[in-house]
Design goal:
about 525 residues, 17 strands, seven-stranded parallel beta sheet, 19 helices, binds 5'-O-[(L-methionyl)-sulphamoyl]adenosine, elongated
Length: about 525
């Protein structure tokens, strides 16, 4: 490193409601962020990756009541489940925020103060429908068969409330979208957001007075802040804002805000792409650079729901199929942004075909031949590569740019497809060059072929690290690549795997899933 400051990359997950156990949907959102965070770190960025829990609001208060415990005790215990999940899934988050923390209360109250001071919040009264499950307000006309559009039950609410003048932000939002065509991905979702805003915005109730589990409205203890205003603020709290407050960190805020990416599920895009930018504009704060909305998982074709009791526990999946295998499946199986179905059959297929057969066999075969036929000494690349060598090395060297471009679009499935294309090129090269036959006929050529393959496997393993950190760490160790030579500055043709070091007997990294005969 030259001592030059690295570029910052700040990525966030939604913060999870603590009314429920973590399931596959939660793990999915955080996994996508983890892959991005790991990718950017390897690509030389100074990354901040934030996740956490959303602990206030009527839904959580009710869940605590149902359990007969205080909301604080309840949130302490459920929040811990989400914190534990980060370790279990090997997530590399740099911070874990809880909205019940003092640093967050301070940020919420500061934001409220700014909105009030600038005249964007006024006291009025709310009369309308409220969906506790979504923590969202609805008009009569929005209801579908007496329920929220999401299917959540609604209740009638009539109480004094502070309002944010959202209606006045319609044009500024449309102008902002126009000026920032990459603000929301995928594009189809951006179009939905734009047409929603074009349809007109109503002022938004931003306080509740009929329960108390929330951040108190400064100067009016009868109200707590609307849980979405509170929750969205977490993204800026964690950077050290407000910088002049007790928990302020001017350097952190300057470096991290605005966020590079808020990753969210499609169900909560409106809060992130409409309300949040409006709050920030009104407060005079910079807007996040991008929001990406991913799709939803179903379980063997069925919607995942508490009432069906069909939530998939990510730990069960990891136990049965392997953690890295599950991480790979979730990122590869479904085009990121689309809905997807979890099925055991598809999981087993990916595990056996892409991992055990394509990548696992390639690596195991090549390393075993080096171990057995070259006395375990890493052979040297050909001084004069043949066309077939040059072609394969060129396709490996081209991966970095192609993968980076896909990752920057959050097209994780495409990034993996690009890499597996090279894996399949390498497998074809093995078939064509048949190194096992060269052992007798042309040992120097065998060495060249194995060296080309080892170099390709090195680049593949380095690029796959963000998705499968454990498995690729084993692969790289087997190739003799030290920890400090696994960054993206070593691939794309910049460096080659050196020759001459001795490797250990290779062990298979990707086991097959054996389906028991009925
Ligand atoms: N607390 C709010 C977010 C506040 S962010 C300022 C919330 N929490 S949540 O726990 O209900 O959902 C968190 C995320 O999990 C959402 O992005 C949601 O889309 C995602 N998922 C929940 N179930 C899911 C699936 N079945 N499939 C994929 N993701 C899903 O909303």
């Amino acid at each position: 490193m030259t001592g030059q400051a690295k570029t910052s990359f700040y990525v966030t997950t939604p913060i999870y409601y603590v009314n429920d156990k973590p399931h596959i949907g939660h793990a999915y959102t955080t996994l996508a962020c983890d892959v991005l965070a790991r990718f950017k770190r390897l690509d030389g960025y100074d990354v901040m990756f934030l996740t956490g829990t959303d602990e206030h609001g009527q839904k959580v208060e009710k869940a605590a009541q149902d359990k007969g415990v205080t909301p604080q005790d309840f949130t302490d215990s459920v929040s811990q489940n989400f914190r534990d999940l980060t370790g279990q899934m090997n997530f590399s988050n740099d911070d874990f925020i809880r909205t019940t923390e003092a640093r967050h209360r301070a940020a919420c109250q500061k934001l409220w103060g700014l909105l009030l001071e600038k005249g964007h919040i006024t006291l009025g009264s709310y009369a309308g429908w409220y969906a506790v499950r979504d923590e969202a307000f609805h008009t009569e006309t929005e209801l579908v068969d007496g329920k929220a559009p999401s299917g959540a039950p609604v209740e009638w609410v009539e109480e004094p409330s502070y309002f944010f003048n959202l209606s006045e932000w319609q044009q500024p939002l449309l102008d902002f979208y126009e000026a920032n065509p990459g603000f929301v991905g995928p594009e189809s979702r951006f179009n939905e957001v734009k047409s929603f805003v074009r349809g007109g915005l109503r002022d938004l109730s931003v306080s509740r007075a009929s329960f108390s589990w929330g951040v108190p409205v400064p100067g009016d203890d009868a109200h707590v802040m609307y849980v979405w205003l509170d929750a969205l603020t977490n993204y800026i709290t964690a950077t050290g804002w407000p910088t002049d407050g007790e928990y302020g960190d001017a350097e952190g805020y300057e470096m991290r805000w605005p966020a590079d990416l808020h990753m969210v599920g499609k169900d909560i895009l409106r809060f992130h792409a409409v309300y949040w930018p409006a709050f920030l504009m009104a407060a005079g704060l910079p807007l996040p650079k991008r929001v990406f909305a991913h799709g939803w998982w179903t379980n063997e074709g069925e919607k995942i729901s508490k009432s069906l009791g069909n939530a998939i526990d990510p730990n069960d999946l990891a136990d049965e199929f392997g953690l890295d295998q599950m991480r790979y499946f979730l990122m590869r199986e479904v085009p990121f942004g689309n809905d997807g179905d979890f099925s055991r059959q598809a999981m087993i297929h990916r595990m056996n075909s892409d991992l055990a057969n394509d990548l696992g066999n390639l690596s195991q075969r090549v390393l075993s031949m080096i171990f057995k036929n070259c006395d375990g000494v890493m052979p040297a690349l050909p001084a004069e590569p043949r066309d077939e060598d040059a072609a394969l090395l060129a396709s490996a060297d081209a991966m970095l740019d192609a993968v980076r471009a896909q990752i920057d679009l959050q097209a994780f499935h495409e990034a993996l497809r690009v890499i597996w294309q090279v894996v399949s090129d390498a497998n074809r090269y093995v078939d064509n060059t048949a190194p096992w036959g060269l052992k007798k006929t042309d040992p120097p050529r065998m060495q060249e072929v194995l060296a080309v393959l080892a170099e390709v496997i090195r680049q593949v393993a380095i690029l796959v690290q963000p998705v499968m950190p454990e498995a690729t760490s084993k692969m790289l160790a087997q190739l003799g690549v030290p920890d400090n030579a696994r960054g993206f500055d070593t691939i794309g043709g910049a460096l080659r795997l050196p020759a001459g070091h001795v490797i250990d007997k290779p062990e298979p990294v990707f086991p097959r899933y054996i389906v028991e005969e009925a």
